[in-house]
Batch of 4 targets.
Target 1
Amino acid sequence: MLESFTLASAPCFGGQAVTIGPLAPVTFIFGANGSGKTTISRALADPSAYPGGRPDWGRAGIPLGVKVYNRDYVNATVAGAGELLGVFLLGTGSQDVHREIAELTGADGTLQRLQTDLAALRITLGDEEPGTGKLGEIKTARTTLAEAGWRKRRFIPDALQSMFAGYNHSKERFLEKVLDVAKAHPTTGTDPASLTRDAASVFDTTAVEVAELSALTEPNPDEAEGLELLGTPIVGSTDVALAALFEKLGNSDWVSQGRAYLDHSDGRCPFCQQETPHNLADQLRDYFDSRFADQVARLASFVEWHDEQQELLRAALDRVEERSVAQVDATSFAAARAAFESTLATNSAELQKKQASPSATVKLEPIDEDVAAVNALIASANFLIREHNTRVRNRATERRTLLDKCWQHFVRDTIAADVAVYEVQMPPLVKAKEAVEDKIPTAVGRLRDAEARLRELQRQVRSSKPIIEAINATLASVGFDSFRLATSAGLPDGYSLVRPDGVPVAESLSEGERTFITFLYFFHQLQGEPADPREPRELVAIIDDPISSLDSDILFVVSTLTKRLIADIRAATGRVRQIVVLTHNVHFHKEVTYTRHGESDGGRQYLVLRKRPGQPSELVAYADNPVKTAYRSLWNEVRAATDNPASSLVGLQNVLRRILENYFRIMGEIDEDEIIATFSGGDQAICRSLFSWINDGSHTIIDEIDYAPSEAETAVWLRVFREIFVNSEHEGHYAMMMRNPD
């Protein structure tokens, strides 16, 4: 069943998308000319004419065939020389053939079952409604991964952002790249820091080759004079008498430093101020002989050499720092230098201690490990520098390699969790999709085989003759004797419109004739077997204003046929499963919407299409039929006044007069004098006044006087009005009109 219909870009609705529905099995749309009825019928006939419009089908989404009767159908049907395509009914033939056709085409027959199975497979697959079924689930998984990756691009360092060049304007292309990388690289060992470093030489087109760093040269103390003195006490001559005292006291270094003061102390001890022995200076000079002086000089020479080597090492370290090359691990180099400086400072302190106390022994810390540590960093940096230079020299090749590593890092590190979820979800979805896709060709083949079998069977038994006879009989029943249907001589299995003498009608049909014959043809198309079995058997019938220029007899026939379609829908017989009737004619609307007493109004829907000045048309739904005849509307006023006399409208008497005029003068032909005679007193005067108004012919709400009845007066008028029907033995009509709302 057609559940609803979205009409897009229709001028009658201001170019806006409007959803019509949900639709009942029987839908009536009443609207004035120009309100948009034909637009709706055209959109239902061909949704592609209004891009964005779409029908929504029930029953597992299986679409029904849509047959539309409107002006376009009339013009197309009787174009040219009045040739009509054949409409076929199953004629006489083998009972076995008829039984097999019924098995194929029945409500639960083979064709419907195969169509349902195929539709269910396509719904499961989701190939007809975007975003549904397995295809929808696959699309959702892909979209989720694409969106996650798209957001997390910002986590990639700026130096590597050029990896996304060519992918920043297409999420689909971006996703395909992610999936290609994930398939090619299940894991990755890339390091973001190394990628950033490599990008400086590959992605930066201004990068140039870099000179390698010079390693530190470790000085060799063995080549310096005086090294051995560090571990040897430097003391004076042991041949001097004071030597034993100095050795005992261990203060030869103190004596050596104080010796300079002796020359300025005027023969007294610089410390105790006692007279010094006359030969003290000679003994001290003998103690600190030339050997002592030579050793001290050699020690000073070693210290000077050591200081020079330290300066050379520091200068080499400075040159490494000053280069500031990216390949040097600055943190590690700073730590190595700090350790190196600590060792150098310790050794300098030891040498200062030795110079201050030559008799002391000192030992220098080895610097080989410090030099090795710095040189290891330099060697590592030089290795990276050589790689950098290689990349600069081969930038094009290296760029491709680096881009691949960058994508590996992005896919397997940055969005690894999202990719993992996708890789878990996708295999079962793809497997399910492929399983459904494998079944669809088989289902299509079975349906085509059944359709081919039906065509073969129908060729054996179908006939156009019953249709010709039925249409001609209908034409004759309403006095259309100016033309009839005959078997076409030029159109295989078709009909011709011919005059009684057999001459083709051609273009000489009047508007009323065209309307009537095309409606009869349309009606029988809905009843007949489809010429092509691939056409859906079950139909939605759209009927748009089929009574233009028709007289009352023909209008009755059209109304009757339309009501027959409605009855078939309610009984679930025939091919038509749903009908939409659009009209502007109140009388036709009354005829096709009429329900007999006790008949259910269920399964029906009433819509009014309102044309609004300067605004788009408006479609309004009603629970009950909102369109009434003038006669029924008058009775509605009587019912309302009877239920609530206080709210009676001005001019109630005129409403009563118009009812009597319609019923007794036009329909009843009752002598009003006889009716008046049945009353007496004031009631007779009221009755006479009602019939006097009839004779006076007044059709205004208030006749010659401005009169508003009171509640009591209203009750009297309504009582007399009822008694007119009772006294004339038409109380049944009164009761029917008063108890049937609307």
Target 2
Amino acid sequence: MTELRHLLLRRHRRSLVSACATIAVALAFAAVPAAAATAHQVASISQVVPASGGPVILHRVGVVNLETLASADARRAGTAFPAAAGHRQVAPLGMPPVARAARPSATAPATAGLTGFAPGNVAGERGFDGITAAIDSGANPAAGGISPPDQGLAVGPSPAGTVIEEFVNNTLNIYSPSGETLLGAIPSDQVFLLPTRYFPTDPRAYWDPQTGHWFLTQFTFGVVTSGKPTSQADQYIAVSQTASPFSNYTVFSFSTADRSTPGCPCFGDFDQVGADNSGFFIATNEFSQFSQTQQDFNGSIVYAVSKSGLIAAAQFTRPVPVIQRYRVPSDPFGAYHLSPSTVTQGSRAPDTEYFVESNAFALTGSDLRVYALLHTDSLNTGGRPPLVVTTTGTEQYSFPPDVFQKSGPFPYGQSLGQTGVGQLQTDTDAVQGVTDASGRLYAELSTGFDFGTGQNAGIGWFVLHPVTGSDSVSASLVSQGYVQTKQDLLYPVIGVNADGHGYLNFAVSAASRYPSTGYIVFNGANGPTGNIYISGHGTNALDDFDCYPPFSNGYCRYGDYSMAQDYNGKIYMASEYMAPQPRAVPVNWGTRIWYAPVP
């Protein structure tokens, strides 16, 4: 495990830069404009993407029953287990080169138009604590401690009524809206029928409004044999055989090692899922597994499969469907994070899947690229939909800084001889999630902005209107803007209904605040309105092993994304925060799940 630990460490360790490079970074952090710009910009000419690839072999792994797994072992009761130092696991995160540069403090004047904080919460808001580090360690005792708790969330109907499926690194649970546990914590290696030597990460959960079925995904980063990682790398998909989230799921897998590409075997990092009327999609960032440097990014890979074909194969009524693979090795933005869209409940689902990409390979950006897979109904007959792309101008955004958290007890850090708590990593200004609501795309990203004493982390949001032809796509910018406060906002996501109304949710932290969760009303094309509500007040500082050497130098990994979903008139949201719950020995993170009526 030592070799694996050091390999994972290389995925997120910062490198030093020269003084000249530092000056260049400082100049790039010009103040983001304060006012939210609204425009109707016509995109550039559509281009066909010459994406290489072809069919990928999909395998049935087997069938699991979640109720059976949940009752099989009493150890998943949430008890914290002591962890051996060599067994701690950091989820890999491949970052663009700019993320590894030192980030300076800015000296520009404070940005105007800061958002305030509201007392109380939206009428009807309810929430509860979800999976915590102690529960996760109890479910995965061999791992000892896993960080960060990348957030998966799906909400839909069941024989027990509305249920909330939460899936983090590396545990699954199902709750009622009141917070009652309906399933019990299940380790993800059991969900996907994995040997314990596999390293699963980046879980996703999705309930499909069109078919009523449940989808779970996670990728594996290598296999440990005799203490060393091998070149194995796979993507796993579990599909419910019925509309019940509790019973049988058929597990599928396919290789992401991409052995024919120079620099590989590789793995498909940050696997995001999307769906339209006909297809189910997974977009990944491809990184070499064993490079000794971090200059090992090979572009994005998109996998497309027939949704009905996948469900029929899960029910064993049809053979496994063809998966089409699209390799995008480069584009003007670096081909990093082609974030797929999901169609919100009640919206018309097109036979087009959209992806939105920001310029995360640069220190600043002022454009978005919109990719579209056209005629995805052809997936139902083994066809290969064409991939097209266009670009539209936007407001400026920039790489977000790491952010402070309130100082508090840090017993694990003190046991290592540390003298204080670390800052929280904000990752990148890549688009994290895209919602398709009645033909408009709602996207968001983290951005830096200048605030008096230095850089703060805020949010940029965008509403786009894509239009497709038989072999083309264009996109106009409907509206855009920022949410920025005197405190720092991390990992935003927009959850809206078919009319574009809902909430923008995120994590909140500051030198005066423990890591917490917050949200703001999102009013269609008008965007965020009013003040920020705090849904979960953090009660301690993050004190995970990955805040300290040898895993980092004072920068804590944080849940790499948040989640939000519209279901039956409510927006359900989830994010990492510091819950008032027992800790495990080397980790003390928590998660918060909450929901509120659509405003």
Target 3
Amino acid sequence: MKKLITTLLALLLSFAVIAQEEELLEPEKAFALTVTALDADSVQARWDIAEGYYLYRSKFKFSSDTADVTLGEPSYPAGKIKHDEFFGDVETYRGSITITIPVERAAGAPDTFTITANSQGCADIGVCYPPQRQSREVTLASVPAASPLAALTSPDRGFLTGNSDGEILEPDQAFHFDAIVEEGNTILARWDITPGHYLYKDKFRFTLTDADGVTLGQPELPRGEEKDDEFFGRIEVYHNPIEVRLPLLRENLEPTEITLLVSYQGCADIGICYPPQKKSLSLALPEGSAVAATPQAAPVSAAAPAVPLSEQDQLAAALAGGNTAWTILLFFAAGLLLAFTPCVFPMIPILSSIIVGQGAAITTRKAFMLSLTYVLAMAATYTVAGIIAGLFGANLQAAFQNPWILTSFAAVFVALSFSMFGFFELQLPSALQSKLAEVSNKQQGGTLTGVAIMGLLSALIVGPCVAPPLMGALIYIGQTGDPLLGGAALFALSLGMGAPLVAIGTAGGKYLPHAGGWMDAVKAVFGVLLLAVAVWMLERILPAAVTMLLWALLLITSAVYMGAVDGVREGASGWRKLWKGLGLVLLLQGALMLTGLAAGNADPLQPLKGLGFGAGTAQPQHLNFKTIKSVADLEREVAAAAAAGRPVMLDFYADWCISCKEFEKYTFSQPQVIAALGDAVTLQADVTANDEHDQALLKRFSLIGPPGIIFYDTAGNELSAHRVVGFMPPEAFAAHVQRALPR
């Protein structure tokens, strides 16, 4: 009891101190409430929540001050789970929340009444407000004269929910599903959709299992109704009962048993969406017809032509309907290809420096164990982060692109580099050198725990790249809610990315020279590579001119240590001359960078571009993007382009996205790409900050992070089959644009 009283007093004291310092907003400013009428039978309460504050879902209560006006069950959006010190695991809202509240009015009830909203929230600094009670006057539209038809169809009679209590239906009640077999060659899948609910046409997935010699043809989906969805854009939906014919391609004509797997997703008109539903149904097939056994004879509906899928959607479909073993092997092979991209390259000097740090004591077996530990930790981290992203839409890697985190990790690499050179005792005070030596030794000392930590951090910080195989696995996890197979695919993908690292690390342990001058030279090389990784990471947060200066200093300093400015004495070995020659090349490149930097250029690879040297006098070309920030910006620009009869390309970019910078430098600067997009409106969403507007824009397209390129046709419809995820070179991208936006 004494401890509880002490805690409460401490909380009250902290509240008083903070309030005196005017760090807390007044409740009305922290949680600004507006109430508006939607129609004659519902109102909408919206709280705009200040940054650093949140509201509890369980604390909302609504009441009316008029006896003839009563409020129904509010419709809440999904919040985020937070572990609260006092209330345990609770659902909270940040940014803004909109709650729809049904209104029931008796005959003769006034159109205007006062609604009272109770809420409670807290500030992130640890201070909670007392419960707030706010009242707002709202005027509803007049209720039309009652009629027998209106009595049957109005929302207050349960039309939206299928019952008279205003309760949300269970998914099986809202969308009753069954399937039957027709004549052995066709399955008829049927959904009875309760009024007030709808199913998305593009969310249907059909798969057969335990079906020896029987496969599915193209599903015959009926035409749906067009709907402007808040999250998915303009799509087709079904409000009424539907039937989907599934033609069977039969090699086995004998009577047999099969299992049909179906997934689908729908919503209620009141604004509540159900999670993806998965159903399994055993069906007995009678004797089949030889005519339907060939793909050519399989019926395909003209109303639902086969739609091409993007690469990531094809991979997601492979997970949903393919052979598991082959699918996992496919993702492993995709990981091998990703291993040779700039996202994985920086991990080579990180792992190699760990191996080199062992010195002459390293053995092939130990090098293999260290490499395998690093790769397994990296793979496990990618898998867990991917599952989180697929289930919750939270990009864990993006969160680690914080300037403080990147700077700290770069400092670790600098410390490791200095330890490679052996300069601690020469360059730093004894107290600081012992600390750095301690950190360095922990990472290089061969402990599997230290190597695993480095692998974990490398996965989160060094390579936050999004590629089609990764998006395919995330799409599958997000649509099915099944992290098991999706996680296995991500783990296989990560192992494929790490396989070359294991090979390089193990070979390094086998072929490292013995102690002596050679070992010192090898360690110095990896010391330079670690400094290069540190500069490469800082590129994401530093101005281009600063990073170019860092590259120039690194090259010039390395050249000096390689003897570029020293004379070559008579009788020097060929190796000494080779090192001096390479050093001169680095010295010259560093000097060119400084020259270009002084002239206002900031491209380390082309430091003299555009400075008046021959062909370089022409001004460099590049796509001109119009920057957007929010979903509202996007909708406005797409609508304007559609009104002008022009297509749209939307590019997602972030400073920490390596593939985005490849697009900027190598693809968007090429004449064939600029020509292919000559008629298009080119938009760019910079999601570097990863704030709520950025996340909402990414969520609109079910993207986890950049890069991502979205195309719209001249009518303002998204061309989802032509989405691009991951880097694409200019020739391939120009051809892709011509297919997506033919003139």
Target 4
Amino acid sequence: MTIRPASDLFNRRVIRLALLLGLIMQVFALVGSASAITAEEMLDDPGLESRARALSKQLRCLVCQNQSIDDSDAELAQDLRREVRTQLVAGASDAEILASLQGKYGDYVLLRPPVSTGTYVLWFAPVGVVLGGILLVVAIRRNRRPDALSPSPDTAEEQSKGDVVGDARASGQTPMTSNILRGPVIIVAVFGFAASLGLYLMLGRADLADQPLAGRQAEIAAAKTAQDSRSEVLANALAEARQTVANAPDKVEGWLRLAMAAAAVGDNDSELDALRTALDLTAGDPSIKAMLAEALSRAADGQITIPARDLIDQVLAANPNEPRALYMAGLAAYQDENFADAVALWHRLYNQSRPDAPWMATLGQNIVDAAEKGGLPVPDVTASPDQGMLDMAAGMSDEERAEMIEGMVATLAARLAENTDDIKGWLRLARAYDVLGRPEDMVGAMIGAADAVPDNARQQTMALEVMITTNLGEQFLDDAPRLLARLEALAPDGLELLFFKGHFAKLSGDLEAARRNWQLLLERLPADSPLVANLRARIDQL
């Protein structure tokens, strides 16, 4: 039987207790929390939303202890999440966003601060503390002699006394002094090591910055005040919009204002009700249908639902160039993993949009993403020359700017006159003319684009549509038959072909041909199509 000294038993209990405390500290340090992001914050584009979530996990909440903005419910964390998504939509890269926020808030905003001369101690000092604690424990254990087995209590007691006396003599201490000091030294060493390790895991890891909340109270208070002020403004706008529709329930503008105010505060139910009322008052206006489809998708966390898809189809049947419907049609195709259709729809919207349209940066990224996921050739979505010209001219006077832009557009037009097959050049020229407010030249450039690719039905359609939407069809009656003949050969069953033929027949004075084509179109349209009433009215006017 082996008998341990009472001090040894006490020391082992202390060691077990210290290790248990260290384990508890580690457990608390590793506890996580669920994501705090709300559905209203999420972006419709799944690719951008995935990047936003990844960035949010790398950024620290400014008012929380060791919590990412992805996990935090604090209003300041919501502001940072919105700022990240705003920069993503604007086309910024992940590195640019992190650098922007780091420059604004310092290394504190990064959950993993960079290793630099200023953070060497933060990164490597804890390692030294841990190693020092381990060496201290090893040294103490080596100084303790193992107890020998004894066949009898008497022999064990004599051997124990001899060991104690020998140790005491070697150290210049009495046996009583040695026993008194050994226990506290071990207790202090082990508890100090466990406490250091626990505090390091909770508060001192290299991926944690300090928590200088006391020095940031003014900044935090200012941000909170700004957020409260913004919330109050939005709430007041919603209340005013409700009062407006209460005073004039038959005014479409009031209901649209209410829908926008409700969307700003995330009140999906009120937004949907307002848009449905506006739709009833306008007898099914396509633009309001597109807004309703977007609201339905937003209420479904960005998914293009079946009711939304039905509305999108109706809008595109009435107006194939409606931007919101085109974008959501592409998003629906993307969600169905029909990447070819997504690229085609989004690229069509890209080509017909003004270069300064707010959706251009997001649209370009979406096109590239869909093409890459579908293994398709990536279309050219680089900045158009007209946008570059406008950027270069930012510091010029109005006269200098106009002169420079006109000169560059003239140069592009002259080059295309010699290289008529440059489809991309014709489309860029058309956008430049649109920016300059020259619709006739813009239509001419779109006709040039159609002539550059005579076997492309979509390009013939776009040129004919531009003639109609600009009300310049009569000025291009010589060009229309050529485009119509190509479209009839390429897509003889298209409903838009019948409409185009009827429209240009009417402009040419052939009312019988116009009536015949539009009557055929009327027979092929569904009875509930929003185009039916408009087409009947056109036929009656012939």
